[in-house]
Design brief:
316 residues; seven-stranded parallel beta sheet; two-stranded parallel ribbon; 15 strands; 17% strand; binds NADP nicotinamide-adenine-dinucleotide phosphate
């Protein structure tokens, strides 16, 4: 297929483009920042500059490149500035998930694009009652913290707009595997504490596994909604100390809820103490996908471990 990857130069785009080419797809990859064209070309795709928030530019790139499929992976997380409000931190990404998605869907409709796959998110979104692990059929959080309402609404918009148009929304777990992962930097410096009882559950996914699931989703008739997460949703009090150990950092600090709320905002406290993880059963059954790193434990070791840890991984 001729595939337009929007956000080909990003963390997942860089893993996705080579896997698409390996599966005999012809790829056009968009970038926005200077230097992106060379980066996309080096991955084996034809580069195209695009600001997905410019609906006219979206229309012309889609009509000119005439893809059979579009994969929307544009986010703006690399240079985000920390704020106690998640909505402020994610403002640009929220626009890409709402306005950017709408512009791409409108252009796709006009150009007769057959397949549409887009990046959504699984963690921190499901209702914070009942079981600690949720399926795609479970309700989303009806009352997100006030500072995360726009962020949740943007993801909900993307899910509904994409599936409403017959496409596939992939609710990825928290990405890891990039050498410059911001989370790992924070853990190394002990800037990422366990908050309260650390009972909030997180679902992770290695970037290579996320890319592999995306290639499979492209072959899937929509509409579809899939959690693309590993097999082991885990509470913060478990995964965070283990990540610190793997990267050779001192154990994380512990902050009571009220201090974390003052320092990092209510959204962070809710994530750390109440959030639910996600089940990948549907993606495995319907996409025929099997993660290469079924657990973040082995994935973290492979991505960030010291040689001794990696040797343990290889033996187990
Ligand atoms: N995606 C997630 O849900 C998530 C969640 C938490 C943490 N992280 C971490 O955040 C880091 C960066 O993540 P990322 O790759 O998702 O973000 P990113 O590198 O900021 O951007 C992803 C892609 O979107 C493109 N893009 C940005 N603004 C655009 C616009 N207005 N129009 C069209 N394209 C645009 C980027 O182009 P340029 O490269 O040319 O700017 C890039 O190709 C990684 O370390 C990741 O692990 C990601």
């Amino acid at each position: 297929m001729r595939v337009l990857v929007v956000g080909a130069s990003g963390a997942i785009g860089r893993r996705l483009v080579p896997q698409l080419i390996d599966h005999d797809h012809e790829v056009i990859g968009t970038f926005r920042s200077a230097g992106g064209a060379e980066q996309v070309r080096a991955l084996g795709a034809k580069p195209a500059a695009l600001d997905a928030l410019d609906a006219r530019a979206v229309r012309s790139v889609v009509l000119e490149t005439a893809p059979e499929a579009i994969i929307h992976q544009a986010t703006a997380l690399t240079h985000m500035r920390f704020s106690r409000s998640l909505d402020r931190t994610f403002a640009a990404t929220n626009r890409l998930r709402s306005e950017g998605t709408d512009a791409l869907l409108a252009a796709a409709r006009e150009a007769g694009v057959r397949r549409f796959v887009a990046q959504s998110f699984a963690s921190y979104r499901y209702e914070r009652t009942g079981s600690m692990v949720k399926t795609e059929d479970d309700p989303l959080d009806p009352a997100p913290p006030p500072t995360a309402r726009e962020t949740n609404a943007a993801m909900r918009h993307l899910d509904e707009a994409v599936t409403g148009a017959g496409g596939v929304a992939l609710r990825y777990g928290g990405f890891y595997g990039a050498s410059d992962d911001a989370l790992v930097g924070l853990v190394r410096r002990r800037f990422y504490p366990v908050v309260g009882d650390g009972a909030g559950v997180m679902s992770f996914i290695h970037l290579d596994d996320a890319a592999a699931a995306t290639v499979l989703a492209l072959q899937h008739e929509g509409p579809g909604l899939y959690n693309i997460v590993d097999d082991e949703p885990a509470p913060m009090r478990e995964w965070l100390p283990e990540l610190a150990r793997i990267v050779g950092a001192k154990p994380p600090r512990h902050f009571p809820d009220w201090i974390a709320k003052v320092v990092a905002g209510d959204g962070m406290v809710v994530m750390a103490t109440q959030s639910r993880g996600a089940s990948n059963a549907r993606a495995k059954a319907e996409l025929g996908w099997t993660p290469r790193y079924p657990s973040w434990r082995e994935g973290f070791r492979a991505a960030y471990g010291r040689p001794a840890d990696s040797a343990v991984t290889a033996r187990t």
